[in-house]
Design goal:
With 180 residues, this protein is an alpha+beta fold. The chain contains three helices and ten strands; from the N terminus they run ββββααββββββα. Helices cover 22% and strands 46% of the residues.
């Protein structure tokens, strides 16, 4: 599944003010290997004005994904353990409906997700979190590796590469809603 926004900055008079920080440190990078057995990947990198802990709290709050993740119609935690949990995510549009069963591993420097579904033979995502260049900022790298099952993979490939930036944008918006 998953995560930019407004942060605080010091103006010339020494007072705090809200300042937009929505600038990718590098352009969104789409790495596609269409037709390879390894599948495809997509990577987004952002610098946000939130701590890694704040980012991680939003990313791991899967039970609330249906409130802000595009096309998510239901999200449930099905099992929990020390440093991990399992979740089911139901997504749908007028074109399709899909259930993703995920095993999520939570570490101080990020979140790893291994998912399974009828559409994908492989679907793994990673939220890597590193301290940003300024206090209370985090460099986020979101990556997803996937391989599609069956026919129509070029159309699904196009849809996936269009959807990923929207997903990251939904997390950016959620950071603002929760922390500003």
């Amino acid at each position: 599944p998953v995560v930019l926004g407004m942060g605080r900055s010091l103006c010339s008079r020494g007072t705090l003010r809200q300042a937009p920080v929505r600038r990718p440190t590098i352009s969104a990078q789409r790495q596609r290997k269409i037709g390879s057995k390894a599948g495809s990947s997509h990577r987004e990198q952002r610098l946000v004005s939130y701590t890694a802990d704040q980012v991680q709290q939003v990313v791991t709050d899967v039970a609330k994904y249906q409130e802000f993740v595009p096309w998510c119609v239901q999200s449930d935690i099905t099992a929990t353990g020390d440093g991990w949990f399992e979740a089911d995510l139901h997504v749908g549009t007028w074109i399709f409906a899909e259930k993703f069963a995920s095993h999520v591993t939570v570490r101080p420097d990020g979140v790893s997700v291994e998912s399974s579904s009828d559409m994908f033979s492989k679907l793994n995502s990673q939220w890597s979190l590193k301290a940003g260049p300024r206090p209370n900022t985090t460099l986020i790298e979101f990556s997803v590796e996937y391989a599609l099952k069956g026919e129509g993979s070029s159309m699904a490939e196009k849809m996936i590469t269009d959807v990923m930036p929207k997903m990251v944008g939904a997390f950016e918006k959620r950071f603002r809603e929760v922390y500003n």
